Amino acid sequence: MSTSPSLTKTIKSRIRNFLQIRLPWIPRAIKYLWIVFLVFILGLPLYVFTVSINLFGLYGGMPSIHEVENPENDLSSEIISSDGVSLGRYFRYNRSQVHYAELSPDLVNTLLISEDHRFYQHSGLDLPAYFRVIKGILTFSSSGGGSTLTQQLAKNLYTQNTDRNLDGPLGRLGRMPRRLIQKTKEWVIAVNLEENFTKEEIIAMYLNTCDFSSNAFGIKVAAETYFNKQPDSLNLQESAILVGMLQAPSFYNPKRNPNNALQKRNEVLYKIYKHGYKIKTKEQFDSIKALPIDLSYSVQNQNQGLATYFRSVLGNYLLNYCNSKGLDLYNSGLKIYTTLDSRLQRYAEEAVAERMKPLQEEFYKEWKNRNRNPWVDEDGHEIKDFLAKRIKQTEAYRAYADRYGENSDSLKIMLHKKKPMTIFTWKGERDTLFSSYDSLNYYKQFLHTGMMAMDPISGHIKAWVGGIDHKYFKFDHVRQGKRQPGSTFKPFIYGLAMESDYSPFYTLRDISPQFKIKGQPAWYPLNSDGTRGSGEKMTIRQAMARSTNSITAQMMQTLGAENVVEFAHRVGIDSKLDAVPSLCLGTSDVSLYEMVGAYCTFVNGGINTKPFFITRIEDKNGNVIENFVPKTKEAINEQTAYKMVFMLKGGVEESGGSSVGLPLELKKDNEIGGKTGTTNDASDGWYMGLTHDLVAGVWVGGDERGVRFPSWDFGQGARTARPIWASFMLKVYADPATGITKGQFKRPASGLDISLDPGHKDVPDSVKVKDEEPWDIKN
Question: What is the C-alpha to C-alpha distance for residues 470 and 464, in angstroms, rounded to an integer?
């Protein structure tokens, strides 16, 4: 049965009238839907296009194609040793990159199953995921996010990277506009990333850019921080922990929030079970789910790794350097090539730890036996109110004083209130209850050390140990600290003597000379045994080897203190030296850094090379910004230099020499020069050791002069510092890869000076003085 055209027209007219009368909004809704549809179809691409070109600068910039093709997600500056080992980085965010081949299959599969299981099916944007998000919004349910791994990579690299500012005027209108524009940029960047990189490269780049809390950025640092592993060794449970952290790194941090992390790990493992990867049955899932989190947690920072003190000193230097060059040390991706040798550095740190631990135990024991504290004055009496005065220099005191007032009872109560803290011990960190006074008393009783080793020919610093533990003791005892060198200063007096044509075999009597100082009693320098000398005849080589003060004093009295100061400055000492009689005992403060550099002048044929620790700096692209060249000068002639090497060898070769006690293994088939040093008050012990291709110095003492060894015998450099040098050199010689070998000192090209003949003991008349003539010092 057919319907006539007129009837059809009538039905349509009645329906239209009904809709207009009963449901007048429907035609308008259809019209608006068409408008919305057309705007979406035509307007969305147009909007995306305007964002991509940053129309009128409204949206903020986009990364260039070159930037997308060459993303930079690790711009920290790296320190590299002379043997090619990374010593550490200067960073705002601790990142290290890995390639896809360095990722374990468990990690990769866990990531994809948990975060983007259609990763290999999309090209940067996952439309089904967006529909899932829309459904979740409409049904008020959580059904997962819509971002792909590639979009999240775009966010990490660009849109939410704090080192980049891609916001424009529209993005600064509020949170919603900014997030919409950021999301749009992520779409565009994600597509570009997919066009320029393989899927495997995108996975690696993404994991390299993720934040894993605890200052761990990137999967490599995260694996090291939480599990002490490399990413290629992560198992399924460990991978689930780290992947679970991606959604909220701090909330799911397994160290800070273990319960949250465990719950999230099991959620990720359940997804793996549902996808059938490795966990095939419910029993397997229940079994692995019951396993506890097994951490090996260690936050990486500048207090860990090799050469912590060196890196700190180097960092201060580089900050000034980078400021002068308009560079950002923490975000320029610099490569800093240093002179340090990672093997020698490790041996130096091992030698310090091995020797300082038992020395500290002896130090405690000796003072405990005396029932006294180790802070004493020049007369050997315990310093009164030592802790009460030092506490005022602490941060805790300043903080409590600001809060409660300088003289308040509350201040005193808080300084004596015990609280939980972690302390350093030679057996590892220990948790305890200490008050501020307890802490000060504990740490003031520690012995400290500094050690530096240097190639005397090139001037390259090869090892630098500034203290016993950088986390707890920041002060650097190589360059920052200056102390009295004691007898290690004597070679500068004898060096001037060699330059003044004295023979090492010139003979004097062991009798302390008299120094007249206007307005003061006459002063007679005493020997280490407390006497004014034995009257014995000895050569000046023997005198220096035995550290005989009386003969050193005679030589300085003859040569003149001002001339000794000038000589010391010429060979490498930069510190101010006081031209006073006591200078012969090494009473002017110097740094270990200066002392090693000055001793190298003797080994280097009289050429002084300033200690040198950077060879070149490159930018992020490998272009050399600057090559560094050591500063050298001829300080003394090669004959004088070699005569001083010969003098220093006396410490090993002469009877009673202060280096005779070195291990036979070191001395066999090897020429060594050495000089011990100990201050009169037993607060400083030194040792300077020389070989033909390495000069190293060691200092040991308290963190301030008032903290002293219980006796001169206990604190002498031969007992405190020399064993560290010997242990270090034994380790170095045992490793042929270091290139440091036993051998002879280089002889002068012009031949040996006649004054090295034991039969030649004369000295020019021009420098002779009468035995009884005192040195009269006038104000």
Answer: 12
pLDDT tens column, 340-356: 999 999 999 999 999 99
Q: Which residue has the tokens 């990672």?
A: 342
Q: What is the 3-state secondary structure (H, E, C) of 640-683?
A: HHHHHHHHHHHHHHCCCCCCCCCCHHHHCCCCCEEEEEECCCCC
Query: How far is it, in rounded angstroms, from Cα 707 to Cα 335?
Result: 41
What is the dihedral sign for C-alpha 187, 189, 195, 197? negative
Residue 41, token pair as written in the block: 């179809």
Looking at this protein, which amino acid is placed at residue 557?
Q
Strand 673-678, strand 632-634: pairing: unpaired
Q: Give residue-wise pLDDT tens across range 401-430.
A: 999 998 899 999 999 999 999 999 999 999
Instruction: Give yes or no for a contact between 148 and 111, defined as CB atoms under 8 angstroms apart.
Output: no
8-state DSSP, 157: I
Q: Of the candidates 478, 405, 416, 472, which has an alpha carbon nearest to the alpha carbon of residue 444?
A: 472
Contacts with 142 (C-beta within 8 Å, 6 or more apart), sequence order: 136
Beta-bridged to residue 507, according to DSSP, are: 539
Phi and psi torsions of 118, nearest 5°:
-100, 20
Taking the C-alpha atoms of residue 72 and residue 63, their distance in angstroms, rounded to an integer, is: 11
Do residues 73 and 152 make contact, with C-beta atoms less than 8 angstroms apart?
no
pLDDT of 124 above 80: no
Chain center to CA of 306: 7
Kindly report the backbone phi and psi dihedral angles of residue 467, in degrees, each rounded to the nearest multiple of 5, phi listed first: 180, -170
What global pTM score does this model have?
A: 0.79
Spatial contact of 107 and 362, defined as CB atoms under 8 Å apart: no
Q: Is-contact 292 579, C-beta < 8 A?
A: no
Share of the chain above pLDDT 70, in %: 82
Amino acid at 277: Y
Cβ within 8 Å of residue 452, ≥6 positions away: 461, 463, 464, 465, 478, 592, 593, 596, 611, 696, 697
Q: Are 149 and 119 in contact (CB under 8 A)?
A: yes
Of 576, 550, 705, 726, nearest to 652 by C-alpha is: 726
**Residue 103 near residue 218 (C-beta atoms within 8 A):** no
DSSP string, 228-254: S--GGG--HHHHHHHHHHTT-TTTT-T
